[in-house]
Design a protein that fits this description.
Elements (H helix, E strand, L loop, with lengths): L9 H7 L25 H9 L13 H14 L3 E5 L2 H12 L5 E5 L4 H10 L6 E5 L4 H7 L4 E7 L11 H10 L3 E5 L4 H4 L9 E5 L13 E5 L3 H13 L5 H12 L1 H19 L5 E5 L9 H7 L6 E6 L2 H11 L4 E2 L9 E3 L11 H6 L6 E5 L5 H12 L1
Parallel strand pairs: 2-3, 2-4, 4-5, 5-6, 10-11
Antiparallel strand pairs: 1-7, 6-7, 8-9, 9-12, 11-12
Helix pairs in contact: 1-3, 1-10, 3-10, 4-9, 13-15
Length: 393
């Protein structure tokens, strides 16, 4: 999929790309709920399986609804190819399986989703792939950790849950100078707010479960990049290992992409208002949000993002007990670890999203017991403030 095929703006790409209308003349994209596809002859079947001709074979790796989602997301990210997967974590796993082998080394940001750390340290390590962790915003630390066998740099920016930023262009330059691939988890921003490939990254990872869907309806993931690494190598992992996205979930994500730009701007606007309010609350000791001028990477956020995003994290004095008190006092906000929903969600990262990390790992990542993460939804922001106020008085 080449973005140059379309002389369209971002919002039009999000609505129009990928739908090959069938003979039925449908206006909305259909769901191809089928496990397999019928061939006109034995020769046609052989040509499909050998790769001599293009077309559908089996929905584990070829399905028209999934393909429509892949083409649309690739267009939005400015990539040549996209491979949709069963979840965001399976997108990361498929990428690592495609790019790495025994003896290779990863340098990752220390500030990543807890399950990604477990994947690197517990599971990839079993197959002889080692990982070291750098301070996200410290390029010198990244450079120090690169070894002769380093093959992949992995970064999540903004980070979960502290919204720390990494300089994508600087990391891309560092990766390429050392013959490494830069992989960027773009879950928090989506291509509506940030386009890592345009900044030099090689591969973009998505948990489509989050903002790409936008309403908490389905689980899925995606890998976006060039025709060789993603279109052939990551696709090869999907075809063989089968971390497959369902056609129904792909259809849900297609619908989500249609409103992605509008939603991300609205999430950001609400989050900015909430962050500005939280800064003024006596019981809040610190607020983490790239839209605040006191955020350490506020200037970088303005350069590489179109808006600060919808995630706000804040700290209260008193540790876990105080944080739980704030969370439990809410009546409208949804206590769940998911994010990217139109409904505002609230969670305690130290005991949920990052609960499988050791105390030392959480401390190194800056995940304090008093930290609360709010994924700001699209309700009236005054109602969100009022609900949080219950626990902050």
């Amino acid at each position: 999929m080449n973005n140059d095929e379309f002389d369209w703006g971002f919002d039009t790409l999000g609505i129009r790309v990928g739908h090959a209308r069938t003979a039925e003349g449908e206006h909305s994209e259909p769901i191809f709920a089928t496990s397999s596809f019928v061939f006109g002859s034995a020769a046609e079947a052989a040509a499909r399986f050998s790769g001599d001709s293009e077309g559908n074979i089996y929905s584990r790796f070829t399905n028209p609804t999934v393909r429509a989602f892949e083409q649309r997301l690739a267009a939005l990210e400015g990539g040549e190819a996209c491979v949709a997967t069963a979840s965001g974590m399976s997108a990361i796993l498929a990428t690592c399986m495609a790019m790495l082998q025994h003896g290779d080394h990863i340098v990752s940001s220390r500030s990543i989703f807890g399950s990604t750390t477990v994947l690197f340290d517990k599971y990839l390590a079993r197959f002889g792939i080692s990982t070291d962790y750098a301070a996200l915003s410290d390029i010198a630390d990244w450079e120090r950790l690169i070894k002769p066998n380093t093959r992949l740099l992995f970064v999540e920016t903004p980070s979960n849950p502290l919204t720390e930023l990494g300089d994508i262009r600087a990391l891309a330059d560092l990766a390429h100078a050392n013959d490494c691939v830069l992989v960027v988890d773009n879950c928090f921003c989506t291509p509506a707010l940030q386009q890592p490939l345009a900044l030099g990254a090689d591969i973009v990872i998505h948990s489509a479960t989050k903002y790409l869907d936008g309403q908490g309806r389905a689980i899925g993931g995606a890998v976006v990049g060039d025709a060789k690494r993603v279109g052939e190598e990551v696709f090869g992992v999907l075809r063989t290992a089968g971390p497959t996205l369902s056609p129904f979930a792909a259809w849900i994500f297609l619908k989500g992409l249609e409103t992605l730009s509008l939603r991300m701007q609205a999430h950001s606007a609400n989050a900015q208002q909430l962050a500005d309010w939280l800064v003024q609350q006596p019981r809040v000791s610190k607020v983490h949000y790239p839209g605040l001028s006191e955020h350490p990477q506020h200037a970088l956020a303005k350069l590489q993002q179109k808006a600060p995003g919808g995630i706000v994290a804040f700290e209260v004095d008193g540790g876990r007990e105080a944080a739980w008190q704030v969370i439990d006092a809410t009546r409208m906000l949804s206590i769940t670890a998911n994010l990217g929903d139109v409904k505002t969600t609230i969670t305690h990262p130290a005991t949920t999203t990052h609960g499988r990390l050791s105390v030392d790992q959480r401390a190194a990542a800056g995940i304090s017991d008093g930290l609360i993460r709010v994924a700001v939804g699209l309700e009236d922001v005054g109602d969100i403030r009022d609900d949080l106020q219950r626990g902050l008085i």
